[in-house]
Amino acid sequence: MKILVINGPNLNMLGIRQPEIYGNENYESLCRKIEDYGREKNLEIEIYQSNHEGDLVDKIQEAYGNVGGIVINPGAYTHTSIAIADALSAVNIPYVEVHISDVTKRENFRQISYIRDKAIATVMGLGTNGYIKALKILMGDNFL
Ligand code: DQA
User: Fold this and answer.
1) Cα–ligand 1 centroid distance for 99 (angstroms)
2) Under CATH, which number does the domain 2-138 receive?
């Protein structure tokens, strides 16, 4: 069963953007880490990143019928996007919410997540290792 890893806006700027919050690892290195883990565990993984809300909605819709689990870090859209939350509900694919930083310890505007209530888990504050933890959580479920 295929797993889709989705990253939202500004995650392509990893390694450049606020390293004191998001670390020094760049986006390519994050992708490599996920791909290496997928190879080790024999998982089919697609990684997708976009800075555009509608593109993220399109990608989630395209997953319908093709993907068994989603790992998603919607970036700032976590806190604003009903459209992304609706798309995840529409396709009804189990998903894990990931944040590199611990958003609970940050600004008030980051305390809302429109995708959290329907996620099978939320992983945050583990840096880029959070994506691996999210994959493990998805694999632990019987749908895979
Ligand atoms: C983030 C946290 C969000 O609040 C922020 O807008 C991001 C990244 C994280 O991974 O910690 O872009 O999702």
Assistant:
1) 6
2) 3.40.50.9100
